[in-house]
Structures
1.
Amino acid sequence: MDILILLPMFIPPSAIGYIILITLGKNSFIGVILEKYFNIRIIFTIQACIIASVIVTLPLMYQSIKTSIFAIDQDIINASKLDGASDFKIFTKIILPLCKNG
C-alpha cells in the first residue's frame, strides 16, 4: 500500500498530468461515463488542477501523517480501550489531537 501511495513521488509531474489527461479525457472510458451519465467534464478545469495537486502532494501528506500516528504511545491507546472508549472516540479524542502537528 505504501508503494502505491508513494508512487507519484517517483513519476515526473508532466507524466502525472499526461496520465490524468489520458484517464479523464473526453475520449477515455472514465471521461465518457462522467460526461454522458453525469454531465461532468473534468479536463482543463479547476477540478483537474485540484485532482493533480492532490495526486502530487498526497505522498508528502501521507508520510507526515504516518510518522505522527506511529509516534503516538501505544500505552495511551491501550489505556483508553481499558477505560471503555470506542474506536471512533479513541480516533477523534486521542489520535487526531496527538498527530495534529504532523
Note: The chain is about 70% helix and 0% strand.
2.
Amino acid sequence: MKTLLSCARLFVLLGTALLAVQVPFYVGQYGETLAAHYAESQRSLGQFQDEADRFFDGSIAELVSHYRDSDDEVFQAGGESIQAIYHRNLVLERSLTRYRTGPVSAYTQALVRPVPEIKRAVLSDYSYVIRLDPGAIVFGLGVGVALTLVLELLARGGMLLVRSARRRRRAVSRGRA
C-alpha cells in the first residue's frame, strides 16, 4: 500500500511538473501573438487615422460620426467597420499594455483574463514541447511540489477524520454495551 501511495505521489508530482513547464511558454507565445495582432490592427487603422488627422484633428470618433451621418448606406456601413477596427485596436492596445507591465500581469492576462481572439490563436498553433528553460523548470517543479503537498495534506487530513470518526463510533458502541 505504501509503495502504491509513493507511486501516486510521484505520478502527481511529475505529471503536474510536466504540465506546468508549458505555462511560461504559453504565456510568452500569448504575448507574441498579442503584439502581432496589435501591430496588424495598427496597420488596419492607419489609413483611417490619416483621414481623421487630415479632416477631424485626429479624432477617429468624429470620422466615424461623419461616415454614420452620411445619407449613403455604403458610407454608413463604412463607419461601422471603422468603429469595429478602432474598438479592436483599443482592446488590443490596453491588453498589450497590461501584459507588458510585469510578469504577474503577463501571467494574469494570458491565463485568467485573455483576449478571446488571442487565446484561440495561441491554442490553435501551440505545440506541446518540453523545453529545458531554467525558469520553466523551476515553475513546473514548484507547481508540482505545491500540488503534491496540498494533496498529501488533504489525504492525511481525511485519514485523521476517518480515524477520529471510527474512535467515536467505538466509544459510543462500548458505552452502549
Note: Residues 23-129 form one domain.
